[in-house]
Protein 1
Amino acid sequence: MNRTWSPSWAIPRASLLPTLEPSEPYGRHYDERQRVTSSRPRDDKLDNKTIRHVRSVTMSSRNIHEYGELFAKYLEARKAIFLDKLGWHVSEADGMEFDQYDTPQCRWIILHEYGEVLGGARLMPTTARCGIYSYMLRDAQKGILPDLPRDVLFFEAPVEHSVWEATRFFITDDVSAKRRFTIRHLLFNKMIEAGVAHGATHILGIVPYLWMRWSRPMGVTATPIGAKFEIDGTQSQAVLFSTGTYEA
């Protein structure tokens, strides 16, 4: 995907991380209504009855063996969402979806109930390396991911131990409409908690542009750090979350 858009303003990396405040006035490409700061998801918005039997796992290559078939079910759920439903150009084998970022350097956050996967997310440190790959947003900026634009960020992709990237955030279709808000909220809470446990002060990633609509009722806000772009008919945007106000 070739795009030539370039902003008339710039945010120096040092000013964006960790304060999230630009040093120059916003230009015409910035919507002032989007100027929001990250905040901790409010636990009092969680419906405890809805999640009474839901369990959360932060899985690594070291502890996969402790959870039986859960990791395979998680990859199967990813296939059902990202390949079967959304039609993304992703890899698949034996009914499971995976890519070059599923390495021992990442962490998988999985929600499950009675052994069935309800949702998941993947965290990757921005210091990660595996062959020619690092992490998704940086690799897009380097031009080695053809399905993502190179100008996905307004600034140079960070390589910092305190900055992690979130990808493959999903809720399965088996979660009823009545429960989706609470399950999504819990998954976001657990993702932030896992990031904090690994020293993350910021988490960045690509979200659907409609994120702002359904995240605000959860008390979750983020700073847009890239222009809107389209992938497979979906409007998306890179955003940055601060974990600084989260109390693990």
Protein 2
Amino acid sequence: MARPGLTIGQAARAAGITRKAVRVYEARGLLPAAQRTTAGYRLYSERDIKLMTFIRRARTLGLHLDDIRAVLAIRNGGTPPCATVRDLLDDRIAEIDTTIAELLALRETLTGTRQRADECADDQSVNVCGIIEDS
């Protein structure tokens, strides 16, 4: 039997996320609105914790909240979302590959600039710094 209701702090700890993340997920429509006590405290069920844990794992894989919402909508519609998840993972891999290529190009530029920096003289006539101005 499920626990009667966990506070936001208890639920967040159980799912391995922060209280702020719980509020964000609820505000963004990833979690259903929590039940409230008469004092206004949010209460979460074991099902909510499983959903929070799923969202945390999806975020760990780099999926965006909008993507996770789409996956949940597909699942809530009664269809397994595996094809969509595969497509989303392929998209993230492509994004990461692009970022890696951009970072490698930046590293190459920085390395070349650093090598030229040893030739820079402090007595040059420049506005601020010849190392950057000449790059």
Protein 3
Amino acid sequence: MPEGPEIRRAADKIQRAIGGEIAADVFFAFDRLKPYEDALVGRTVTAVQPYGKALVTSFDNGLAVYSHNQLYGIWVTCKPNAVPATRRQLRFAVQTSRRWALLYSASDIEVLSADAVLAHPYIARLGPDTLDGTLTAAEVEDRTLSPPFRRRQFASLLLDQGFLGGLGNYLRTEILYVARIHPGQRPLDCAPEQIAAFAAAALALPQQSYRHSGITNDLGLAAQLKASGYRRRDYRHWAFGRVGKPCHRCGTAIAKIVIGGRRCYLCPVCQPVSRL
């Protein structure tokens, strides 16, 4: 599933493609949304905004299209009549005279009034966005140690969009690895320096991933490994997807565990079960 950095890059791409443009045609795959096609044709796209893992495309008539990519959704932008070949099903499209924006495979799509966007159930429960440049590490520390969250395992806490918006499976693994926290630990199990490291990583890694196309590893190390012939999947992350390969810090084989039905990767030496 695309995580916050990927959705924000998609929003940037779509904004560049159709932002400020008049919709010459609009398509919805779902019958329940078909009545909105005529209402959006001829209207100007005023904004394309990410909300955690969701995206909202707003128009100048006060309507907005909410979409969530879920596991398989993907956005494509192209020149008019230059749609790439794909077997995916088109679910939503905005066509302008300059560019087209096409959403494939996603099933969670709604049309809302502008006033209803922030009240949408997914958006309303979102925690602070880790890509928000005004969010501070101190605020993340305080939130992590607050009563609603301090007794929950990090493994499940970091997938809860009500805690921090936009985090998902790969960012969960990477943040905990950098902070040297085992996924089974709870905030109240951690030493103060671990919580501080967690808060810093919870902001730094999503923001780096956004700026550097998904790379969460140390940028210098990633560049070195790439120059040495390593494949992207082998230099992109510190731990995620690297089961059996050596930890970049201590050389121990990265392990994969399953918590709550979701895979998580860790270094058994750098992330022992408890450090207290």
Protein 4
Amino acid sequence: MGSPIDHSAHYTATPAEVHAAFVDPAYWRMRLAEVGGPGAEIEDASAGDGTIDLTLRQAIAEEHLPSVVTSIRPGDLIIHRTEKWERIDGDRARGRFSAGVEGMPGKVEGTLSLTSDETGSTVVTEGSVEVKIPFLGSKIEAMIVDELVGLFDAEQRFTADWLDGSYPG
């Protein structure tokens, strides 16, 4: 069944402005450089007509991992992540994401929704983390959810700076 992921990010920008960033390859290159971790890169990208389909490579350095993870799989965690955004429809857009870690039996997957709110827009991330390791799976799932929420928060800060023009890069 896995552990749930539930995260909301608010932006003062309109849904159209947020969506325009999310389907811009330049935004993704800068976002990965800023918050993607060691060796982060875009492995594949297809963008156009208001959509984007990405495959990303990200990593969590071994020194930032708990011993329960490094005892099973030493070294940096290499994460292959996909994110796909559909065209915006009025003030709404939908997306999907997934991720897997090299050498670990598990998956992360879910949905993204961008909608308007009273002061701008909100992106809601919902999904689950499932790690199939007897006795340790739920502990590792909880660690992954915590890491993902931290990453989503960093991505939110980057995106807010990108949208208001204050990103220094």
